[in-house]
Amino acid sequence: ENEPFQSFSDVGSSVVPQIEHNGFETIDVNFDGYLDFRLLAQTTAGPNTLYRNWLWSEEEMHFVESAPLDAIVSPEFDADTQEIVSRWRSSAAEGGIDIYIWEEGKPVLIHRETDRYSGEGQCTRLFYDRIGGRLEQTGEGACS
């Protein structure tokens, strides 16, 4: 047994009581080989899920909050590609997928696909890629 080396208060999590331990989990979110942790920040009626994240800092020897990662909805972490995938919905007529990589300790959006539905049942997929440090539209097509 060890004494606690770090404590947290007011973690900003407001989830329904039925979710055990507020969705707490340990996971290497930044692919550095150290376990980080996160918990659900809130539950919503829609598909977007927000988390509060703390990353292990080898330099500081404690967990550090990550506001940029907290802003990514429904993040999934792919250790093989070293990418964060976010599947999101902004309305009944628009949703998409964002892909992030870690640069200088922060997640950076490198690719986005947005599906937009019209009132006639048509769907257009817009593609965006990071070019010169900015997200630029790189294509458009029908949703598959």
Commentary on this structure:
The mean pLDDT is 88. The protein has a six-stranded antiparallel β-sheet with strand order 5-6-7-8-9-10, with no helix packed on it. Strands 1-2-3-4 form a four-stranded antiparallel β-sheet. The protein has one domain. 3% of the residues lie in helices and 52% in strands. Strand 6 and strand 7 form a beta hairpin. By secondary structure, it is mainly beta.
Main attributes?
144 residues, globular, single chain, 3% helix, four-stranded antiparallel beta sheet, 1 helix
Shape: globular
Please tell me the overall pLDDT: 88
**Which sequence of strands runs across the widest sheet?**
5-6-7-8-9-10
DSSP helix count? 1
The secondary structure category is mainly beta
Helix fraction, binned, reads: under 10%
The rounded distance between the terminal residues' Cα atoms is 54 Å
Compile the SSE list and pairings.
Layout: E1 25-27, E2 36-42, E3 50-57, E4 62-65, H1 67-70, E5 75-78, E6 83-91, E7 94-103, E8 106-117, E9 123-131, E10 134-142
Antiparallel strand pairs: 1-2, 2-3, 3-4, 5-6, 6-7, 7-8, 8-9, 9-10
Brief rundown of the structure:
The chain is mainly β. The protein has one domain (20-142).
